[in-house]
Structure formats: C-alpha cells, structure tokens
Amino acid sequence: MPDTIPLQDATVYGPIPSRRLGWSLGINILPLSHKVCSSNCVYCQYGWTLPGGSSERLKRAPQLLEEIAAAFQRCVEERTPVDCITLAGNGEPTLHPDLEELVAGIKRLRDAHFPRAAVGILSDATQLDRPHVRAALSLLDARYMKFDAADEATWRRINQPLGRTDFQAMVAALRALPDIVLQSLFMQGAYDNTGEPHVRAWVEAVGSIRPRSVQVYTVDRGTAAPGITEVPRPTLQAIADRLTAATGIPAEVYE
Ligand code: SF4
User: Fold this and answer.
1) Which pTM value belongs to this model?
2) Is residue 192 domain-resident?
3) How many domains does the chain have?
4) From the CB of 39, is ligand 1 less than 6 Å away?
C-alpha cells in the first residue's frame, strides 16, 4: 500500500476524480502546515493528529472566501470540470469558528461559477452538539458523516476522538440531523472492525440513525498506525448487502 499522503497545500485543491462524488473540488479551510482534527483515526491518510500543531494561524472567513473566489475563477477560465465542491482538507472542517459564514459564502460563489455543483462536507460527526455547526450543516447540499464504529470502545480505539463528545451523544445527534450520508470505513489487520459481533451492532446502529444512504469502503493509502490492511471487496459487499437487507437503507461499496 502507498505511503500516507502530504497535507493539502492550498485552500482549494483538485478537482479530484472520485467514484463517490465525480470531479470533486476540495476546500481546505484549515491550516496548511499541520492537521487540525477532533479525531485521531488510526487509518488517517495524513498520519497522526499531532498535539500543539504549529504557529500558523487559522485564516478567517473573509481571507478564505477571497482565495476560494480566485480559485473558482481560475477553474472557470481553464474549463476545469467541477461536479461538486467538498469541504474536507487538513482535518475536521466543523472546527472552524466561521463555518456558517464560510458555507454561505461558498454557496454564493458556487451559484456564480458552478451552479450545478453540490456543496458538501466530510465530517467526523463529533461537533454536532454545537448549534452553529448544525446551522452550517443545514445550509449544505450534502452531509457525509463518518461512522466506522458501532460502540464506544471500538470508536475510541479506531477513531480516537480528542474532545469531550461521547459516542451515544454523537449517535443521537446523527439521528437528529436530516438527510445525511454515512461513510463507514472497514479495516483488518492491526485494527479490525469486520468481526461478526461488530458488524451486527453496526447494522443495528446504522438502522437507528436512518441515513439516506451509506458508503462502505476500505483503506487504499498508507495509514497513521502500522499493520492496517484493506478489506477484500466481497467482504465489503457482504456488509453493505446485509445492511440493506436488514434495514432497507441503500449501501454502496467504493474502492
Ligand atoms: S477525521 Fe479524517 S482527517 Fe481526522 S483523523 Fe480521521 S481520517 Fe484523519
């Protein structure tokens, strides 16, 4: 498996061809020099979330929106294909204090430059208890929320949340959030969430959240922790099919 990847080195990056999203233009509202995340997932493609970070200051909304406007303009001039715009980047985007202003501004810029592109977010779902985060998420066209673990112990082992959120509160907040897509990463080797008891509990937990759909996938790059291996496609497909059979929720496997 290839190594972990470097952090994104710009506010706007890509577009990245994604089987899940088409040509996805990434927006990184976090620093460029270090990862800022509320999780420390063992499989993170950027490596570990390190304490302390660096002295780089968070850019506030006006500066970020100026950079995003310039990048969108360049894409239009260069006829770059853009199917969707996704807030992701160097960590957890919901940690940015100006999230609501940024989402509203990005949507305005989207309307002006790529009116058919959906604006979405990739999130670890740990900040959903914050009213301004829920307000910002409600403005988006798509909400992709991480859900790899069915119980507190597995969540702490795999996703290693760094804040005060507890698992049951996060699940309750996911249930209350309308129209979400869950993204569930399965892995084997040094960490394994594909065992029968865990998959059974995951099906039950996803069934209680009732997302619009679920994206099931596995690692395809280097990981923060050593010894994590990808899950064979037939196993992923069996997990997705089992969820749909038990709950009626559509689930797709992505590689
Ligand atoms: S939530 Fe995403 S960015 Fe943060 S540690 Fe996990 S995989 Fe990495």
Assistant:
1) 0.96
2) no
3) 1
4) yes
